[in-house]
Amino acid sequence: MASAEEMKARIDCADLAERLGMEKPPGQPNYRSPHRKDENPSVSIFEHKNLGISYWKDHTSGEHGSCIDLVIYVEGGDPSEALRQLHEIYSIPFDKSDDESNRRSKMDWVADKCLADIKPAETYLIDERKIPKPVVGYLAKRKTIGYNDWINPEKKEGEKGHNGPAACFISRSLHTLGVLGIEYRFLDPVKNGGLKTKSQGEKENAPYFPDLPGLRNAEVVFVVEAPINAVSVLAAFDPEGKGTSTRSAMATRGVAVVDSIDWSVLQGKTAVVCMDNDKPDEKGRRPGQEAAWKIHEHLTALNIPCHFVDQSEWGDINDVNDYLKAHGPNVTRTALRKLEPWLIPGLHGRDDDNAPPYRRRLLLPTHDFAVYWQFRAKPDFTSYSKITTDQDTGDEKIVHQDLCGFRVASLSRVTISSATAAMSGETDSQPHTVFACSVQTARHGDRLMRKVLQDDQLHNVEQWKKFGPVFKPAQFARMLNILERAVGIGSRDAVNFVGLAWRDGRPVINEGADCYFTEPDKQCPYHNLAFPSGPVTDAEKVITAYQSTFKDNAALMLLVWSLGSHLKAFLGAWPHMMLQADKGAGKSTLIKRLERSIAFTMFSGQSLKTEFRLLTSISHTSHPVGWEELSAQGQGIIDKAVAQLQECYQYTITRRGTDMTEYLAVAPVLLAGEDVPVNSLLGKLVRTDLSGRRGPLMPENLPRFPVREWLQYLARLDRARVQSAYVNAQSYCEQHFVGSGEDDGANRMRNNYAYILMAWMFLCEFADMPQNFGHFKTTLIAEMNSHIAETSSDRAPWVWILELILGEIDSGNYRYPYAFTMVDDEFCLCIRTSHIMQHLSQTPALRPKYDALPVKSDRVLKKQLIKAEVVTKEPVEKTINTKRVANMVALSLNNLKAFGLTPAVPDMPTSSTDSASAA
């Protein structure tokens, strides 16, 4: 059961009051007491300043307290009953023994038992499994092997599940080194009913790494099936147990879990797959080899080079440990270095008539299979084998000729979802197909190059020459014709989007390697991004550091906005962020730390000089980007930038160039600077101000935020829950909103801050932190109300228009008739709205301003003026310079002053002969 303090930190009393059925009259801040006729609601709910928790008080009776006291106040009972009722109301499990932390604690405890005395396991590995003694000692220091002799008292010896003495292989987390699972290999399987192995703890995405430090430094990683085989690989390449080899190993712990493993741990390395050399069963299936095919597809999709060990001469030897026992470390090392030479990994080029029939990875037509064997692949080179006849002896011999200076690792068919389906999750009605060719070259080493080809580019040799030299174009074309048959291997549905997107109707995490852009450098700023990953416990450390580095959560608000931007997949919109700061306030330092914390990218002013560069910086990603000092750019660039920001508040699809390359303007943008000239965007952004709030610097050893784990958490949410959380956040902001609720612009700004509050709620749940941490909600509401109040006169387009016109009047450049006069006992400016728009559109100096305005017609301008209640009377007719001017509007100077509009008024009002008269 959760403790009382945990419940106080997690539960909002306002939400609890509604669930308990307490009545809150519309427009009232307080609730009615359930115990009396409360005509004036007297129960208030607020955040306690000292305790930092949600609190309540009955101002009539004086009763007050936390959420537990509120249950007692409404329902009666004692604290223990109230605590139990809170668990039921909020569906909080009473027994938390099944949560992740407790499972891991239990596995750590079991692992400690296995590590208490490992001598029997060491003896077994050395004597029975022929693992060199130094290797066993090295792994014992790494705490990845152990011993367990537990016996199930309910099972007799010889029955399945009896257990008994077993060598233990301990799977640990790459980030925390915590125990995820344990694999048991019984020393005497007969006692356990013939079962050789058993697993405990997690098995999916919990592979066995015998040497984690060696894995980080390894250049080549061998992927095997059982932990004993991973240990055997280390024995082959490092028999002295020094830990200096550039070869390491990992075990999948079975063939059924290869799809659940996070293979990105092998990024930057070469993978060599050596699964069990299984004989075909009665259906011709070979589980080990078929699992190897899946691993190859997963790794190639991540641009990780993948090769297969050539097991064609292994005979009856099933796995690496069997080979080690039969031949010793040196010969085993040589066998593991011998890789399959075939063009398509896992597809042998010659038939073995003596081998039993088995399921092939691909069935090639006879005319293709007849020449398939001629193409031989090295890790980063391809050759062509030709049969020639010796003129002297008449014997046939095979001559290997150079074909191309690279290896085609994969050629796959990829179906890409439309942008609308990726953003909305709706059924895709406009998918399109491309072909992804992954190639390994010498210059790129342990990373595959990928290029996306359209159908008509597939057989264009000039396209392939961009990878490297093609020595024999005719034979190369024949090879491509064979590879066409293999486009189904690794074929997949993809989304060209970096962040959280929808694929096949469910949210998925998409990184740069998961995308298939035709022009990646231009289409997405994060086309090669891999999200920072780490233990979830690092989230609280990062949040705490950002909360303390600037007062009033000014920096933390920026972090919450950045991480919450990935919720755009559920909500369809996300506000931009305006970061304001005086010189020397620490803005640049904070942005650099944000870049380090979440892999954020800040674009300099030089990279924003054209409309195309602006578009490429915000395309195909929900991961935020930044624009530095937009105010320092020319007005033309500012206008184009504002137009782009308008479009990517939600998302907009556009196509550019002769090839009609698709761009999806969608990324939330951080606008940083002392002055951000985006008045027309006030309804689509939130802000934070660093001025005068600087605190201590964040520590240099601060870990990166676990963005990938955060996205995995978000991907488990459903749209209904996110929408419900947003409605609750809106309700909270509305309760603490200073506005009247009748200003649509202010309401929209309020809803934008509700996005940030909702993101904070989910972030607290992810990091297991109380929602009142650092009084974030309080400071967010304060910033919201301040922002709305300060911009009340800047949000409407008519204000921007009148600012320009009054400036023209003051400078004497306004060429149309106008007059300052009394109308209905109020001093007014009489002017025609049609003349205003004509002046803006026909004055060369004002034309760029006019082009950027959202309002272009005088009819809409007049409607906005009337709605803002600055029109005293209309229509108005008056004589100006002996000419009668009709259809004017009389604008109250007092009402204009409330919006910051103060024209230069003449010393004396116009004469009575020029006074306005009703039309």
Quickly describe the structure.
This protein is an alpha/beta fold.
Give structural attributes.
flat, 5-stranded parallel sheet, DNA Primase, Chain A, disordered C terminus, 31 helices, Dna Topoisomerase Vi A Subunit, Chain: A, domain 2, 5 domains, alpha/beta, 919 residues, 32 strands, 5-stranded antiparallel sheet
Describe the structure.
By secondary structure, this protein is of the alpha/beta class. The chain folds into five domains: 4-89, Zinc finger, CHC2-typedomain (DNA Primase, Chain A); 100-337, Dna Topoisomerase Vi A Subunit, Chain: A, domain 2 (3-Layer(aba) Sandwich); 366-396 and 403-440 and 461-494, no CATH class; 537-695 and 703-790, Rossmann fold (3-Layer(aba) Sandwich), CATH 3.40.50.300; 797-918. It is built from 31 helices and 32 strands. A hairpin with a 2-residue loop joins β12 and β13 (381-389).
Secondary structure: elements and pairs:
Layout: H1 4-10, H2 13-19, E1 43-47, E2 54-58, E3 64-65, H3 67-75, H4 79-89, H5 100-115, H6 119-128, H7 133-142, E4 145-148, E5 166-172, E6 179-186, E7 197-201, H8 212-217, E8 220-224, H9 227-237, E9 247-251, E10 270-273, H10 287-301, E11 306-308, H11 320-337, H12 366-372, E12 375-378, E13 381-389, E14 396-404, E15 407-416, H13 419-424, E16 432-440, E17 449-453, H14 461-464, H15 473-483, E18 492-494, E19 499-503, E20 506-510, H16 520-523, H17 537-549, H18 554-564, H19 568-571, E21 576-580, H20 587-598, E22 601-603, H21 611-616, E23 625-628, H22 635-648, E24 652-656, E25 661-665, E26 669-673, E27 685-689, H23 707-715, H24 719-735, H25 744-767, H26 776-790, H27 797-811, E28 819-823, E29 826-831, H28 833-842, H29 847-852, H30 858-867, E30 871-880, E31 883-892, H31 893-897, E32 917-918
Parallel strand pairs: 8-9, 8-10, 10-11, 15-18, 21-26, 21-27, 22-23, 23-26
Antiparallel strand pairs: 1-2, 2-3, 4-5, 5-6, 6-7, 12-13, 13-14, 15-16, 16-17, 19-20, 24-25, 28-29, 29-31, 30-31, 30-32
Helix pairs in contact: 3-4, 9-11, 17-18, 18-25, 24-25, 25-26, 28-30
